[in-house]
Amino acid sequence: MKNKVYDILRKVPKGRVTTYKEIAKAVDTKAYQAIGQILKRNPYAPDVPCHRVVRSDGTIGGFRGRREGKAVTDKKNMLKKEGIEFERDRIKEFEVVLFSF
DNA sequence: CGCAGATGGCTAG
DNA sequence: CTAGCCATCTGCG
Fold it and tell me: Would you identify the CATH topology of the domain A2-97?
């Protein structure tokens, strides 16, 4: 199923983001928690833009868990370049850029 | 190669 | 706010 997760996530267009829950639903899995792990240790770094995945409330989520602050800035910068505005560590137009499968 | 521990986000009270 | 849940990932022998 994780394979599907990657596949789904790869479908996310530039400038859009998704939530762990949405992915879980898309892959027919209730363990959206596992998505966090998958993205954290994203083995498909270039194929799967894990930085486009956020929490259900618009926060970037576990991306700041380990590299407190530094990685966050990086992700935010990447998303910002794609046209996603950030409010601190939360997405501003989250509902707008939110991509539904 | 196999097992166990730990992680990560969402829901409910 | 805290605790629990499910699926996955990592480390060690």
Answer: Arc Repressor Mutant, subunit A (1.10.10)
